[in-house]
Design a protein that fits this description.
The chain is an alpha+beta fold. It has four domains: 5-74, DnaJ domain (Helix Hairpins, Orthogonal Bundle); 172-248, Thrombin, subunit H, CATH 2.40.10; 259-344 and 352-362, Trypsin-like serine proteases (Thrombin, subunit H), CATH 2.40.10.10; 373-458, Beta Barrel (Lipocalin), CATH 2.40.128.280. It is 27% helix and 31% strand. It contains eleven helices and 21 strands. The protein has helices at residues 5-9, 17-28, 40-51, 54-77, 81-108, 125-128, 136-153, 172-179, 213-216, 359-363, 373-377, and strands at residues 183-189, 195-205, 208-211, 221-226, 229-239, 244-248, 258-259, 270-275, 283-295, 298-303, 315-317, 322-330, 338-342, 379-385, 391-396, 401-406, 412-420, 423-427, 432-440, 444-448, 453-458. The strands form three sheets. The chain has an eight-stranded antiparallel beta barrel with strand order 14-15-16-17-18-19-20-21. Strands 1-2-3-6-5-4 form a six-stranded antiparallel beta barrel. The protein has a six-stranded antiparallel beta barrel with strand order 8-9-10-13-12-11. Helix 2 packs antiparallel against helix 3 (40-51). The longest helix is centred in the first third of the chain and has 28 residues, at 81-108. The chain is elongated. It starts with a helix and ends with a strand. Residues 107-167 and 364-370 have low confidence and may be disordered.
């Protein structure tokens, strides 16, 4: 007998959504060699998708009831051998009695002349069309005939309604319970294994995690963290133009998310962002789609769902739990202006450099024409020394403080800075020095000093 979806997940038919998700995660953690059947992973995934959706689960439950009713009816209508033999004998006796009674009656009754039936005559139209008041018995017969005709002509409704084009909206609790096993913290490490940065990631395929490239390229080593488990990761595909990097994580058993298209996204709809802002793992925040920004490559999603440094690479989900975007950055010059790259781009990734991107200058307002150099400097920059190849992070604060953190060590310093024309002046308690600002836009900074030259790219979040 074919197993039900409940039997495949080994749960009770009255199990809650959380129990369904937990059973799915437990089964998907089993290694491939331990599956009794190679088709089981697909059946387990199908069971989670159907039983995890309230409307699809209700339709499936109705189909089970209908199937059981048909089996019960078929079993009850099949007579046993003794019942069939008894009915045959009874029928033969009744038929013989009726035959004897008819023969005897024809012999005893006198022959009667056949009545003469007058020919049918067409009624006048006035009489034929006159309304008649049918008797109660005639009304019952007509109603019965109408019911029979309706039952014969009408198409029976299917036992299971077709699946809905759009899944039903679910609560934040249910979405978080379902999606959290597929969200990772991405740790960036130096050559000695020390964590120098972090971001977020989303499981998109078997042993594959997607994160932002501006997170993944910060250090020579990467690892992904799911709860208490930390697994090493390597960059499998880097599309810096899309700011998307696909990581290969050997041995990872976390389930992939369902990916949707930005074409189904509407301005004003409610969304959830899940990631690791400030390194705080598995943080969910709620917002709406505040705008859809058209760029050369497609459509960038602007949202009010709060994010912070560390959210980059996390997922933006609709109310059905579908991935619609990858959280990327905050607009430095606006309040609650957060952006996500469309999930459609995941299928369009190819090896490219950041210089090939056009969406950044479109999605991020370039304020170089209306802002002063001091205003443009405010924010975080990823900088590289052309002479030594050393990378560091510069953080310019509005109050005149400058933090410099070197990626290859734990060293960090705090300076004071000021801008005079094209000169950037920096100082600490012991000395002061200056650099010439050769180029400064909302995305790019080039400094030339007496002993070194530095090229910086704004650190988007």
């Amino acid at each position: 007998m074919k197993k039900t979806l409940y039997q495949i997940l080994d749960v009770d038919p009255k199990a809650s959504t959380e129990e369904i998700v937990s059973a799915h995660a437990r089964l998907m953690s089993v290694r491939d060699t331990q599956w009794p059947d190679s088709n089981m992973p697909g059946l387990v995934q199908q069971a989670r998708e159907i039983l995890g959706d309230p409307q699809r689960r209700a339709a499936y439950d109705r189909s089970l009831v209908a199937s059981n009713a048909i089996e019960t009816s078929s079993a009850s209508e099949e007579p046993s051998f003794l019942e069939a033999w008894g009915k045959w004998i009874a029928g033969a006796l009744v038929l013989g009695a009726l035959t004897w009674w008819g023969t005897t009656r024809r012999e005893t009754l006198p022959s009667q002349p056949r009545p003469i039936v007058p020919p049918l005559v067409a009624l006048p139209s006035t009489i034929a069309s006159a309304p008649q008041s049918p008797s109660p018995s005639a009304q019952q017969d007509a109603a019965s005939m109408q019911r029979n005709e309706t039952d014969t002509v009408a198409t029976p409704s299917p036992a299971v309604p077709p699946p809905l084009a759009v899944a039903a909206a679910r609560s934040a609790e249910d979405l978080f319970a379902e999606l959290s096993p597929s969200i990772a913290r991405v740790n960036v490490m130096d050559a000695f294994g020390r964590v120098i940065g972090f971001g977020s990631g989303v499981v998109i395929d078997k042993e594959a995690v997607l994160t932002s490239c501006h997170v993944a390229v910060l250090g020579p080593k990467l690892a992904v963290k799911f709860g208490d488990f930390v697994l090493p990761a390597t960059i499998q595909l880097a599309d810096e133009a899309f700011d998307m990097c696909r990581l290969h994580v050997a041995g990872m058993r976390s389930p992939p998310v369902s990916i949707s298209s930005v074409a189904a996204v509407r301005t004003g709809q409610r969304v959830y962002a899940i990631g690791s802002p400030q390194g705080l793992e598995l943080t969910i925040s709620e917002g709406i789609v505040s705008a859809l920004r058209k760029v050369e490559e497609g459509t960038v999603i602007q949202t009010t769902a709060p994010i912070s440094p560390g959210s980059s690479g996390g997922g933006l989900f609709d109310l059905s739990g579908h991935l619609i975007g990858i959280m990327t950055f905050q607009h430095r010059y606006g309040q609650n202006l957060n952006f996500a790259l469309p999930a459609d781009w995941i299928g369009q990734m190819r090896p490219r450099q950041a210089s090939e991107a056009s969406w950044r200058s479109t999605a991020i307002a370039d304020r170089s024409q209306s802002a002063t150099p001091a205003t443009l400097l405010i924010g975080r920059w990823l900088c590289r020394d052309w002479t030594t190849g050393r990378t560091s992070q510069y953080s310019f604060e509005a109050d005149g403080r400058l933090g410099v953190a070197f990626n290859d060590t734990r060293d960090a310093v705090t300076l004071r800075y000021g801008v005079s024309g094209k000169t950037l002046q920096m100082s600490d308690a012991k000395q002061s020095f200056s650099s010439v600002i050769e180029e400064l836009t909302a995305q790019k900074l080039i400094l030339h000093g007496r002993e070194r030259s530095i090229a910086c790219e704004r650190q988007i979040r």
